[in-house]
Design goal:
The protein is mainly beta. The chain is 15% helix and 51% strand. The protein has an 18-stranded antiparallel β-barrel. The protein is globular and about 75 Å long. It starts with a helix and ends with a strand. The relative contact order is 0.11.
């Protein structure tokens, strides 16, 4: 309610300012008009209908529909309202980014209202900033994945520009510019409390987690050293880099070491075991811009926390065994067990060990301004299943973005994309800015 009143106030202020400006037709110069305004307000409304063609032979279709009416397609309609507000007074800035999402797919509907970001930023000096509140941090140099993103929610590799929800933290930023080969040094320590009420999806409650990032600009190479201490999650550290090899080619990478990782495994009969190990995640990538404005992004991702081929196959066999048991006896205990272990594990995005990501986009082909076609593919290197997503984007109308894309999933039995619920998906996005 407080957010709604604040946003309404901002809108009324903007309307009042517009009315005064329209009434005064005489031109006059006022230096105050060119000063930065203390209030800033923006946002967009997004409508996104889509249709999915279902893969009835897949493990996840069987798991999700064994007790429902069988169907070939599933339609979904999403509506999202994003609101951004900023108030600046002196060296203090209040940042708000609110989100209201309504989803309905014919099976269920949901509504989520939340602040993706809500924090106060103090900057008394150009070399020092203190942020307190809910912040969406961005650690790492990868486009599709960020192995060193220890204090952020993971990206959606199929929509890497999607805004993400932050975590509540207390973070400082110390920056110093230098002369010589080492041009810039920045140190960012942060505290993240975790309890049943705050950051409760980050990990174990009743911890105050400490993390830090050290940034260096050495010659023309960006380098980050990152660290998360033991607490709600197990300890880990990492390093990333980014460097322009030429004016049109950039090379980047990330490497992370994570200690004492527990991995829950399931057998085809439903028995579970937990293994603990130290793992390494890393990513290498290239971004290349051609003379014709074609952008190529290629990344290889090694997910040390992921499942091996046989481990994933055991899960798919459990689902098939559970479906056979249910159809014969009406007992769904194995399917319930499969559903339980899939959450946060087998059902997460890209749960296996080796992936390739390729995205190719062309700016304004055939001299069609504001038109960008692209195609994205994600390949599971281990089982050779993959997705292909062609996309058409147009922003030629003021304050309006349109996007149409189709996703195809391909894979044999007991492969990641061959066992997903969807076989293909068509999506239209309309986004109106204000």
């Amino acid at each position: 309610m407080k957010l709604a009143r604040g946003l309404a106030t901002l809108v009324l202020l903007c309307l009042a300012a517009s009315s005064v400006a329209a009434a005064d037709e005489e031109f006059k110069f006022d230096a105050a008009e060119f000063q930065k305004k203390p209030f800033e307000f923006s946002g967009y409304l997004e409508l996104k209908p889509d249709r999915s063609w279902l893969n009835q032979d897949s493990a996840f279709y069987k798991l999700n529909f064994y007790a429902r009416s069988q169907r070939d397609t599933l339609d979904q309609a999403d509506a999202t309202l994003k609101l951004n507000g900023k108030y600046t007074q002196g060296f203090t800035t209040i940042n708000l980014r609110g989100s209201v999402e309504v989803k309905s797919d014919g099976l269920s509907s949901s509504r989520i209202s939340r602040f993706d970001e809500a924090y106060m930023s103090f900057k008394p000096d150009p070399g020092f900033t203190l942020d307190a509140g809910k912040v969406a941090l961005k650690w790492g140099k990868g486009y599709a994945w960020n192995p060193v993103g220890f204090v952020e929610r993971p990206k959606n590799p199929n929509d890497t520009e999607l805004p993400r929800e932050g975590y509540t933290v207390l973070a400082a930023d110390f920056v110093r510019n230098l002369e010589g080969d080492l041009k810039t040094v920045a140190f960012t320590p942060l505290l993240m409390p975790v309890s049943s009420q705050v950051n409760n999806d980050f990990g174990k409650p009743n911890h105050v987690n400490f993390a830090a990032k050290l940034y260096l600009l050495y010659h023309d190479t960006d380098i980050d050293f990152t660290w998360l201490a033991s607490g709600s999650r197990t300890p880990r550290f990492g390093v990333d880099f980014s460097r322009n090899l030429t004016t049109s080619m950039e090379f980047h990478g990330e490497w992370a070491r994570i200690f004492n990782v527990d991995q829950r495994l399931v057998s085809p009969t439903g028995s579970t075991t937990t293994t603990r190990s130290n793992v390494t995640n890393y990513l290498l990538g290239l971004r290349y811009l051609t003379e014709r404005d074609t952008t190529w992004i290629l990344e290889y991702y090694r997910n040390g926390t992921g499942y091996a081929l046989e481990q994933a196959a055991d899960f798919y066999r459990l689902v098939n065994n559970g479906l056979g048991q249910f159809q014969t006896t009406g007992n769904d205990v194995l399917l319930q067990r499969a559903a339980a272990v899939s959450q946060g594990g087998y059902a997460r995005a890209n749960p296996m060990q080796r992936y390739l990501y390729l995205r190719v986009s062309q700016k304004e082909p055939f001299d069609i301004v504001y038109f960008i076609p692209s195609i994205t593919t994600i390949v599971n290197v281990d089982d050779r299943s993959y997705t292909v997503t062609p996309e058409l984007s147009y922003s030629g109308v003021t304050n309006l973005d349109l996007r149409l894309r189709m996703m195809w999933l391909h894979g044999e039995k007991e492969t990641e994309f061959g066992e997903k619920q969807n076989a293909r998906r068509l999506e239209l996005m309309l986004r109106v800015y204000f």
